[in-house]
């Protein structure tokens, strides 16, 4: 009996280390992406996408994970119906032909407190894929106080050149550099 208990106790750390990664799905009310750019030197304009789908897989103990994001291009929101139509048109995003913008991580970097510090991956816009590193400016996982289930949240930012994605119309009058921002809250499946 003692040998069986000893064997069981020895196998617990192995079973713990083989635990499945946790999968989190985005909370649609608290997940969105926005972008900002220089408009004719007058101001920094900020526009957003209202429909963002995301799944995050995390194994904090082993410091590995995966992020997959799909953005509905039709959900672009500038505050102006006319500009929304222009951005959805063939001139810019060509939403009918390319209805989604996607991001798939290739590597997550972790800090000393099991916090995610950056997400490297591939951003695809209009069928064109380019590497993108998002710097995570905030990351937290804990029990959701109202829903009583595990949840994680993050804010991240990165920069791209819109001309790299065949979106360079009016450069240099309208800035080529785009700063991307993501706010996401996700609940454990």
Q: Could you characterize the architecture of this molecule?
A:
The chain has 189 residues and is mainly beta. It has one domain (21-188): Lipid/polyisoprenoid-binding, YceI-like (Lipocalin). The protein contains 2 helices and 11 strands. It has helices at 2-17, 81-88; strands at 22-26, 32-39, 43-49, 52-59, 64-72, 76-77, 100-110, 116-125, 128-143, 150-161, 177-188. It has an 8-stranded antiparallel barrel. A hairpin with a 3-residue loop joins strand 2 (32-39) and strand 3. The radius of gyration is 20 Å and the shape is elongated.
Helix/strand layout:
Elements (H helix, E strand, L loop, with lengths): L1 H16 L4 E5 L5 E8 L3 E7 L2 E8 L4 E9 L3 E2 L3 H8 L11 E11 L5 E10 L2 E16 L6 E12 L15 E12 L1
Antiparallel strand pairs: 1-4, 1-11, 2-3, 2-11, 3-6, 4-5, 5-7, 7-8, 8-9, 9-10, 10-11
Write a compact overview of the structure shown.
With 189 residues, the protein is mainly beta. It is 13% helix and 53% strand.
Please name the defining characteristics of this protein.
189 residues, mainly beta, Lipocalin, eight-stranded antiparallel β-barrel, 2 helices, 11 strands, 53% strand, disordered N terminus
What is the CATH topology assignment?
A: Lipocalin
Largest beta sheet, briefly?
8 strands, antiparallel, barrel
By secondary-structure content and strand pairing, the structural class works out as: mainly beta
Number of strands: 11
CATH architecture annotation name: Beta Barrel
Determine the oligomeric state from the structure. Answer: single chain
Radius of gyration: 20 Å
CATH class: Mainly Beta
